[in-house]
Amino acid sequence: MLLTRRAMLSKLALGAAGVASGAVPLRFGNSRIPQPRFSPQDEAFLEEIGRASFVAFRDHAHPQTGLVKDIIRPNGGENISSIASTGFGLTALCIAAQRGWVPHSKATEQARRTLRFLWNEMPHVRGFYYHFVDWQTGERAGASEISSIDTAILICGALTCRQYFRDAEIQELAANIYDRVNWQWMYRNGPFLNHGWTPEYGFLTSQWDSYCEHMMLYLLAIGANRNPIPPEAWGAWRRPWVGFDGTRYIDAEAPLFIHQYSHAWFDFRVRRDAHADYFENSTLATRAHQRFCTNLSEEFPQYDDELWGITASASPQGYVIWGGPPRIGPIDGTVVPCAAGGSLPFLPGPTLQVLSNMRERYGNSAWGEYGFTDAFNPGTGWAADDIYTINTGITLLMAENARTGLVWDLFMRNPEARVAMRYAGFKSSEVFKSPNIA
Hints:
Layout: H1 5-12, H2 40-59, E1 71-72, E2 80-82, H3 83-99, H4 104-120, E3 132-134, E4 146-147, H5 148-164, H6 168-180, H7 183-187, E5 196-198, E6 202-203, H8 215-223, H9 233-236, E7 241-244, E8 247-250, E9 271-272, H10 278-294, H11 337-341, H12 348-366, E10 367-368, E11 371-372, E12 387-388, H13 389-403, H14 406-411, H15 415-423, E13 427-428
Helix pairs in contact: 1-15, 2-3, 2-13, 3-4, 3-5, 3-13, 4-6, 5-6, 8-15
């Protein structure tokens, strides 16, 4: 007989206390999985990437609210925060405190201040937040929607803090923010969760009905203590199988980030459901993307095995959705570092080689104050001035997961995450491969 949701949460809560200051946590569940072994030089480079990326979140989180700017512009730009960026920023605080990039006490206070604002002052609708908000007041920016996926990213950040900081207030605030969300309202009797809602028009017409970056959203909604959606929702959305250059995998006609975001927090390694091994699927998708880019070398000679990666980013025309396969958007030879950076756990060797090549060969075009630039074109010399913090964030989190699995270890200590994966039918894979960075 299946345990009730409450009984399962109670059972899994054992050992879910926060991690002591300065201590690398024991791994939940996947302790059998060896982390990739990087050379001292590679470790130093990954440290440089992580530290520089964190500076973006340190310098561009509002000092009172903790909300993180969506775009960092050379001239300052608009003071608009993305709640997704804030979710990455909360997780970044845990990484930075663990690595000593910021004093533990300062990280604790910043996390506490941010979560207080989110719980007590930030406007919300049934626990969901507006996608873009004023970083000082939290008020809705423009015609921004109440966003289900961006709220999920924010909650992932809050729940990571819940497990890292030994602070009762942080733990309570993170739990309250999660428990306040009315997932059933966004589910609308199913079978799919909705993309969002606006006060002017009600629910958006789009639903999360096919494979995308939404796995974390569904799992959070299924595992929630309050107003959860039924586990059957996990199997309702489509999983289209595609083929490219001899590789078959689940995909959508969307940029590479859809294969990265949920994996930043949920640990899908050596686990699979009735449909797929999603970690292996993202690995296959990344390999296919690598070949897609190198196949464009006749058109853009700079693309090769040591320089590839296109995902949603800045461009000379502003923010664009581009990538492949199949070819999406106005590809012009631009390279987007977070395509490789966000894929570090999937293909540690090839992605690290790409990032190292960018850093060494393309100097200021590829690297700046906050680590990698958002995008650059090695053929034309163009480089983005704007930094999209979600792109910096996915590189930071996935670099740490590739090195230590820290974010996975912390997030999977949340009993709700484990409950959700069990309800969704995840079981340990019988056969798995050790990471290979050769």
